[in-house]
């Protein structure tokens, strides 16, 4: 069985030089929709990094979105299932934890290419990637407080380290969007580029990484990511608080307001 046979929500393409391109929500791209993390995509986003780590043919992974943006966050049906079903909530909690730690612990370097809205589970991989690239059209949003739950996922483990505590609190507590240019200015992403340059820039950087000393690059990643591992208890607490919120009253209003496309009334 192919290592990648079980993946259907992700489009996976092997390129020359050991580069694997991971595209989220490929089945939705034909309609130019935003990729939303439903049950399948959320699970696959958590698992793919272990598979990449086990694949000797891959030297670098690129993750990007199709259509109107990078990722649109959690599918509302999944969110409602999490709010209403304890078994789903505990399963997705483990997937959310695995997603963060699997990206951090994947020995292969990861390059993200973000355009348009970048929200939810996709954003986890986008900002935890070793080299993160945002186009000028990118709108990075951690939407948790808008939904009525704590900013869990990846936020507590990496935002304060990337852009400082003051900026992290501002954007995470107020649920404000960050443009690609602003994200580069405050250090939230590695680079910002024009929209039409995004994919080419991602491949340019991935090719440099693939052509470099694999042991040196992978060990450098491992050492630097110890900063993130030290923040593990902070992340674990934030994720627990987020998922506790899925059993509270505010999540119902958050989902209802999103469906009605109106401001929430908490």
Automatic annotation (TrEMBL):
Tell me the InterPro entries matching this sequence: ClpP/crotonase-like_dom_sf, Enoyl-CoA_hyd/isom_CS, Enoyl-CoA_hydra/iso, Enoyl-CoA_hydra_C
Superkingdom of origin: Bacteria
Q: Name one Pfam family in it.
A: ECH_1
Note the PROSITE patterns from the entry.
ENOYL_COA_HYDRATASE
Q: Please give the family membership noted in the entry.
A: Belongs to the enoyl-CoA hydratase/isomerase family.
Query: What is the name listed in the Swiss-Prot or TrEMBL entry for this protein?
Result: Enoyl-CoA hydratase/isomerase family protein
Instruction: Say which species the protein is native to.
Output: Undibacterium arcticum
Q: What is the lineage of its organism?
A: Bacteria, Pseudomonadati, Pseudomonadota, Betaproteobacteria, Burkholderiales
